[in-house]
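Please fill in the sequence for the structure shown.

STRUCTURE ENCODING:
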């Protein structure tokens, strides 16, 4: 059973959590509720918790977030903005993260930073593949992974055509679609240096997206400069794919997103 610490001074928030009768079916112990940052810090010190839930947008959350950043940088943070079935969905997402962090992977080392980085990349892939329900899910998943990315920060989106992609997969690449997706992300676009976080997703044998995300707010002039630099880096990496894999990537569109969440279709 996982131990979850809830920090809230609002009775309705506490009731939403403690009112879930089958919390053990979600693999959580009864939730511990405290009302102040000081109580939360004391509880984390002893007896501890595997995750913490609070409202990161509340005025009182600043000091708690600072403490978590310095003392518990890998502790998953759950938002408290939902009720009923929505809250259960948030708890299910938290359970998925905790299973990854505390699972038994036999001989594999339990490298927590690597697991969280993988969860961040999975969230970005969901975003690129339009598999996120809304901006709230994006915010929740990024926070659970303790990612520096935020839904309100800018991002740069590249669209590519793989004109020979179907033929490449059927004749020259024997490892399958998913392995090609992973290879392009891990060996090429995930290796681009600089201040942005990169991800890519192969949407079909003929189409791919590359995303470059800011981790801090950017002034308009900074964003313009980074846009020019990023275009050069991403297109240069696409040229490397052609050299090393003989797979041509043709950039068909480039967009500057003022907010990362703008990538979520408006009807979601």
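FILLED IN BY: designer on duty
SEQUENCE:
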């Amino acid at each position: 059973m996982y131990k979850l610490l809830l920090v809230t001074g609002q009775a309705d928030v506490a009731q939403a959590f403690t009112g879930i009768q089958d919390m053990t079916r979600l693999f959580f112990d009864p939730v511990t509720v405290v009302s102040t940052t000081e109580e939360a810090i004391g509880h984390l010190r002893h007896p501890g918790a595997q995750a913490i839930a609070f409202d990161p947008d509340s005025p009182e959350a600043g000091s708690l977030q600072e403490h978590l950043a310095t003392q518990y940088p890998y502790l998953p943070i759950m938002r408290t903005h939902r009720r009923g079935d929505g809250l259960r969905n948030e708890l299910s997402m938290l359970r998925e993260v905790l299973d990854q962090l505390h699972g038994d992977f036999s001989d594999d080392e339990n490298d927590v930073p690597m697991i969280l980085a993988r969860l961040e990349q999975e969230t970005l892939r969901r975003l690129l593949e339009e598999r996120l329900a809304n901006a709230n899910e994006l915010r929740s998943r990024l926070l659970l992974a303790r990612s520096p990315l935020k839904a309100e920060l800018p991002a740069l989106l590249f669209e590519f055509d793989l004109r020979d992609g179907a033929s490449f997969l059927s004749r020259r690449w024997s490892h399958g679609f998913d392995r090609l997706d992973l290879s392009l992300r891990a060996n090429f676009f995930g290796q681009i240096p600089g201040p942005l976080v990169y991800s890519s997703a192969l949407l079909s044998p003929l189409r791919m997206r590359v995303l470059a995300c800011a981790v801090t707010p950017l002034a308009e002039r900074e964003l313009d400069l980074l846009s020019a630099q990023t275009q050069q880096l991403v297109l240069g990496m696409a040229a490397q794919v052609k050299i090393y894999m003989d797979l041509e990537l043709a950039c068909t569109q480039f967009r500057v997103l003022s907010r990362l969440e703008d990538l979520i279709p408006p009807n979601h």
